[in-house]
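agent> Task received from the user: take the single chain below, predict its 3D structure, and emit structure tokens. No templates, no multimer pairing.
agent> Plan: (1) validate residues, (2) run structure prediction, (3) serialize to tokens, (4) report one or two observations.
agent> Step 1 OK, no nonstandard residues flagged.
tool_call: predict_structure(input=
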Amino acid sequence: MESTLRTKDAVLETVKDLLPIIKEHRDNGERERRVSDAVVNAMKEAGLFKLWIPRELGGDEIDLPALLEVVEEISATDAAAGWVLANVVGNNIQSAFLPLKGAQEVYGSDPAAPNAGAFAPRGRAIPVEGGYRLTGRWPLVSGCHHAKWLGMGALVFDGDAPRMGQHGAPDLKIMLLPSTECEVLDTWYSAGMRGTGSTDVAVNDAFVPEHRVFSALEGEPRVSGALYRPWYISLI
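)
tool_result: status=success, residues=236
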């Protein structure tokens, strides 16, 4: 389902068409403490959430400077909407690092869908046959209310001790789960940026198959595009 890459100018022109919708719902987002459904749906229809997904999965592979212009344009109207867009797009970079089976499962059917997550290693992952059992709680998961999938950071444990990776650092994995297997908690009561919906998310003993897991510190991109050459952590 390889897509035709959009130019930066084409994407920015699309963004300009969205600004009246974003402005109209800005105050409502502040009241509800998350970006409004209308704004998220408009950004999805405009294909903004797939800007960093590989072309082979239906994405645009737009470069970093172009993405920054898109985020700046939206943030000038609503900082919360710009923040959530940047977080969702950054989170979707994992589509290039997941095993192909996992990437196709998560992104292949609907590359335009919003997905959220938290890199912080607040999860505890226990290896089991075919994958891991994941438990944890993560703060500041911007965009989680609208996410179809959530990518959560977790340390792999062998017994009571964290497993160490090849280079002497803890074995930090990113694990993707359907949002239906996660609990979105009501913890976001900030003084500013209320509309980001950056609340806590909890997972309780969920099974995550190996094909939806990759190493945050040692994983290599599965695709060869220039966008994905930097280290995963540097991109998010």
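agent> Step 4: summary for the user.
The CA atoms of residues 39 and 209 lie 33 Å apart.
agent> Done.
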